[in-house]
Amino acid sequence: MNKKEPFFHIVKRDALPWYQSVGVRAIAIVLALVLCGILTTITTGIDPIEVYKSIFAGAFGTERKTWITLQNLSILLLIALALTPAFKMKFWNIGGEGQVLIGGLAAGACMICLGDKLPNPVLIPVMVLASIAAGAFWGFIPAFFKAKWNTNETLSTLMMNYIATQLVAFYTIVWEVPKGSGKIGIINQNSNAGWLPQIFGSKYLLSIVVAVVVTLLMYIYLNYSKHGYEISVVGESENTAKYVGIKVEKVIVRTMILSGAICGLAGLLLVGGINHTITTTLAGGQGFTGVLVSWMAKFNPLTMVFSSFLIIFMDRGAGEISTAFGLNHSYADILTGIILFFIIGCEFFISYKLQFRKKAEKEVQ
Amino acid sequence: MKKRVLSLITVLAMTVGMLAGCGGSSDKASADTKTDAESTTTEGEASLADVKVGFIFLHDENSTYDLNFMNAAKEACEKLGVEYMTKTNIPEGQECYEAACELADAGCNFIFADSFGHEDYMIEAAKEYPEVQFSHATGTKAHTENLDNFHNAFASIYDGRYLAGIAAGMKLNEMIDNGDITAEQAKIGYVGAFTYAEVISGYTSFFLGARSVCPTATMDVTFTGSWYDETAEKEGANKLIQDGCVLISQHADSMGAPTACETAGVPNVSYNGSTESACPNTFLVSSRVNWEPYFEYAINCVANGEAIDADWTGTLATGSVELSTLGSAVAEGTQEAIDEAKAKIESGELHVFDTSTFTVEGQELTSYQADVDTDADYTPDHEVVSDGYFHESEYRSAPYFNVNIDGINLLDTAF
């Protein structure tokens, strides 16, 4: 009797050429869309093509929708970019949420306390400095403890989120309007003091420009600078880094300051440029979604544009399908979940391949 | 928050999707945002056909507060036969401005937002679209913004709270008569959201209603610091019950307090709508604002090219303030007592905030400067006590009664 061969083997692949790996991902997305379509038809009876159309319309249906999509994309991208150097260094910074909030709180504090004292050309640079410094400080604290006493950064960055949220909650009560209402509302609605300027007459463009610039700088920083090299060496192996004379503690602290500073910048844009208020839900979970974006893109800033686009695109579409079909928002979250599942799952097929038992040979005999 | 959940439950979402597929229960998918084109022709009002309404809701139908608005929106638009669009789950931030602008871009000429924190963003949108009418529920700024196309609306819900309070007072009397509690133990518990005028006005009117029939009633109030936090509301109610409160009411939007009461067997006076189906043994009555009359009024104004009031306050007479049908747990004679008080309120004989019925630090309130015009320093700007009563919701539609009266004990005022 022949030794029974298993039906298939899992074999590690050589590195795929880029067009094949893109192809695998494309197939994954198509399969995900087909599955979503089938589920949509079964559960709601709505034509899935109509649903996809309206998701697209939600993101790009009008000029304004397109701008909003790009703006939201920019903020998520910025936060993901901020987290990337830390993650590349294998420093699990899940404190993006808190770093964004504290940056936003600093900007909001400047607008409320200095709004009627300083003219905008002075106030805005003060806000920029305050937000970036606050974010950087929020990143510095867990990094310092990690470098000095090797504390667990996952816990400490996570806990810093709660501290930031409670600080914002506290100041919301201090600055609430009207009394007792638990909300600050738009800050300086009539004087527009501390509102970041509109560039080229568009209120959406500023965040987009900032995100583009930071993306390019981050790409260069990670791939072509000495700092970037040190980050990857520390990420690969701390011992190697020590061996070749890299001061690991210094790299950790420096990288986390950078990470926090960019989060603070995102907070500034959210408060000074977009919402003009500060609430505990300002970051809206993007500090965590940013982790996903960064991982899905394998820490490549340029690829991150696509992974954050996918999430924002589905999120914008979610609102539209609830308006168009009366479907709950959660429905779009389910669709997004399925698509993400396929995309993350397809990474397996990029790294490995299945080798099936060779049936054909046997049948010939 | 939504996004965090999203990123964490990627796999779970898959399972949910499959379960939904197996269950096949998808009655939610009814297209209630669809237009109602055929009924426009039967209306005969040519101008109504030009009206398209956009609604912005803070949550979706799972929140009792938003559901109350959604039902009214549907009812009014179907009755008048106008086209409408809804946007749900719009947070109180720039998203509200974007949603309002998107609705305006989509051709809506009357846009309404339902949550207090939406107001500033609606004002921003109103400035950008001067030809579109914007209305906002519970807001405070329309009378000072001087925008022709931005309006506030609310209702004299304190009347409804007062009447609901009578049901509570009758129940307390019944408990005293049965010997379940002594007259001194007639303590009500109240779960509030924030120490904001709307909440203070609500619990005070409720308390005055209860005390009008049960003179020994007192009340403890706790605050959750959120308009919707099921866990905090449930815990708040449980804490009040443990502290000896024998009847609970609430001003917060989840089922937290009513379910806590049902579990503990403590009578509950609800808000936003009847909770009898979930709490059959303890539900007494619920007051709510019916928004349908306002929507009808505003849509007709837009259709006829008339100006909408900057501040519109619905009343019992307009049908804006409603009581639900009474629960089976109410005391005997409750309906009669409520009807009697209701008739007196409508005739103007009875004022809820009659200054002879309460004291503040032992003194009768003879003068009070309220912060009617919203500003960051909470500057008091209007004398609101005259003719022997506090003139609530007269200088603007949103409540501004924020006096702490004797007999009500605030347990925590952190929020």
From TrEMBL, chain A:
Predominant subcellular localization, coarse grouping: membrane
GO molecular function: transmembrane transporter activity
Keyword Cell membrane included in the entry's annotation: yes
Annotated membrane topology: Multi-pass membrane protein
Transmembrane segments: 26-46, 67-87, 99-115, 122-145, 157-175, 204-222, 251-271, 292-314, 334-352
Top-level taxon of the source organism: Bacteria
Coiled coil: none
Pfam families documented for this protein: BPD_transp_2
InterPro entries linked: ABC_transp_permease
Subcellular location(s) per record: Cell membrane
Keyword vocabulary terms for this entry: Cell membrane, Membrane, Transmembrane, Transmembrane helix
GO cellular component: plasma membrane
The protein's name in its UniProt record: ABC transporter permease
Protein source organism: Anaerosacchariphilus hominis
Organism taxonomic ancestry: Bacteria, Bacillati, Bacillota, Clostridia, Lachnospirales
TrEMBL record, chain B:
Keyword Signal attributed: yes
GO cellular component: plasma membrane
Name of the protein in question: BMP family ABC transporter substrate-binding protein
Record keywords: Signal
Record-linked Pfam families: Bmp (PF02608)
Domain ABC transporter substrate-binding protein PnrA-like: 71-345
Organism: Anaerosacchariphilus hominis
Superkingdom of origin organism: Bacteria
Record flagged with keyword Nucleotide-binding: no
PANTHER family noted in UniProt: ABC TRANSPORTER SUBSTRATE-BINDING PROTEIN (PTHR43208)
Stretch list, region Disordered: 23-43
Residues annotated as signal peptide: 1-20
